[in-house]
Amino acid sequence: MNIQKSYIYGFAIMLFASLNIQCKGNQKDDKSEKETDIQKMEITSIEKSAYGTTPEGESVDKYTLKNQKGMEVDVITYGGIITSLKAPNKNGLYEDVVLGYDSLAHYTKNNPYFGAIIGRYGNRIAKGKFPLDGTEYKLETNDGSNHLHGGVKGFDKVVWTAVAIKGDSTASLKLTYLSKDMEEGYPGNMTAVVTYTLTNDNTLEVLYEATTNKKTIVNLTQHSYFNLSADFSKTILDHEITINADTYIPVDATLIPTGKLADVTNTPFDFRVAKMIGKDIQAKDDQLKKGLGYDHCWVLNNQNKGFKLAAAAYHPESGRMLEIYTDEPGIQFYTGNFLDGTLPSKNGGTYAYRTGFCLETQHYPDSPNQKDFPSTVLNPGEKYTTKTSFKFSVK
To answer: Active site residue: 72, 147, 184, 223, which one?
Structure first.
């Protein structure tokens, strides 16, 4: 009897010990899984490297933002230029989908705004002048008689101060530039801050901020040229574009707005349903003739809803999809009409006609001279803030 009790007691101890070990093992497994989840969540990084020196002797750095999925974005401090953006195709292959150059020398010599931050004013201002509180300001003219994308030396041609910011699941680069009073003709010392943030859902967020000590105008944007095929020898005519806009802004022969808005219905400018770029680009249309293709600003719908889906681009062969969200009132769609085969491609060869497209979120062109367009005035004590997101996926 005593032997039997002893046997039962011993067996109970062994069973308890076994359960205790198993429980601890499960706890260890749970802890390990949680640690792995945290590690996965935090696999974002920012790497800094030297990129070169400008002709003026200023050092330029490159920052590479990476997320856990494998998306990478390269940004240089010269012009805040996105020199490379690797997004996945339907087979999971990450490839560069933005036009650009292999060296700083090319960016400083002949750059049609590849990947750059544009300011103080994105797009055109007629005759390079505008009125503000009874004073007419004269800007540098660099597009015939007009002012384009900030002038002769806009924000795309200056070196920005950079600060890398590493979050738990994001990688950010904060760029700052002080545009001094009367630079390129603009009044006020204006501090511009542009923050690029790469998230783990393959979204690149761009936050624009600005303050000034004197009344001025501002209209910042990002000027990346996309080719979702990742083959820069191919045109973008097979890309499908959607633009959430019922109206667009017609222009004159110098691409300055006429001041009127036009309905897109039954015109080549109707992209409310996804349509290949090449479908109507050769249509006999006065506006397409003036722009040498699409080079117009669309008036986005649902402007009272703030941050909204503005446009999308899809490349059926690669499966890449780009969605653009913004709180801006307009978006400029440009189809690389001035690419002429003279600029060197980073993949070898040259950038031919229509091998890249731009979708630039912004206020309307020439707004300071158009009384019916939304204001682009920034006052002292105010803060200019706007956000655009570029979300990449596959389908």
So the answer is: 223
